[in-house]
Amino acid sequence: MKIFATGDTHGNFERFRPEYFPEGRELTKEDVVLQLGDFGGVWFGDERDDEALDWLEGLPFTVAFVSGNHENYDALARYPVETWHGGRVQPVRPHVLHLMRGQVFELAGLTFFTMGGAASHDIEDGVLSLDDPSFERKYLTLKRKERARFRIDHLSWWKEELPSAEEYAEARRNLDAHGWAVDYVLTHCAPTGIARQFSRHNAADHLTDFLQEVKDNAQYHYWLFGHYHDNKALDTKHILLWEQIVQIL
Q1: Of 86, 118, 173, 179, most Cβ neighbours within 10 A?
Q2: Mean per-residue pLDDT for 202-225?
Q3: What are the residues facing 219 on neighbouring strands?
Q4: Calcineurin-like phosphoesterase domain: from which residue to which, for each copy (predicted)?
Q5: What 8-state DSSP symbol labels residue 97?
């Protein structure tokens, strides 16, 4: 089994084409490309997603993603849950898999802890509700505002971007079962101490604080994350990925 990793795709999967990822030609469905959130392939929640998802299914390898803050969580919730390599996944296609939160997967003899999600920081001007009687007025006002940054609930923003209490509890149970020792940690955002290195907008929240707890208490060899739109090795253990596809095994 060969394992690769890459960062945010936001529904654009050009990087997986053979001309950009020639290694992919030699892979099989047993090989996995791990995608670190803001996958964006399940965005509309209807047939408009089919072309891209079917194209991904046609690739020689398996694509497995953690969730980010830009995912359609209403649509994701409709997919069934199965067990894959010791952890819970949602197959959106047979070989396009959502790696659920708080899981530990065993791939090629290595363990991978997954904890997707992140708080959106492009919503300084608010989150609008379609049920608000003033929605149209507020929407038009923001559209006229230069560089307005806002989202619409259940259309371009979902509160499930951050884990639930149940997901945190499951993460702790699975970490306890492995003695808080794994080979890899896969997340979308970073622990608080790392997140604050990137921008003043990356304030601490419940998820980054939980990840900081993992960083402070778990044993791991590498931590791979996305979200901050850069390709950078912060040190020998913590790797930020965006467009690059790197082989990790």
Answers
A1: 118
A2: 95
A3: 181
A4: 1-230
A5: E
Contact 41, 67 (CB under 8 A): no
Quick one: tokens of 193? 């101490």
Closest among 43, 48, 89, 97 to 70, alpha carbons compared: 43
Distance CA 31, CA 1 (A): 5
Give the global pTM.
0.95
Task: Name the token pair of 211.
Answer: 């990840």
Pairing between β-strand 62-65 and β-strand 87-93 as defined by DSSP bridges:
unpaired
Structure tokens at 107: 């791939």
* DSSP state, residue 229: S
Residues 143-169 pLDDT 10s:
899 888 999 999 998 999 999 999 999
Position 134 in a domain = no
Higher pLDDT, 122 or 192: 192
The total number of structural domains that make up the chain: 1
Residue 114 covered by a domain: yes
Q: Angle, nearest 10°, between helix axes 206-217 and 165-177? A: 10
What is the spatial distance between Cα 185 and Cα 238, in angstroms, rounded to a whole number? Answer: 9
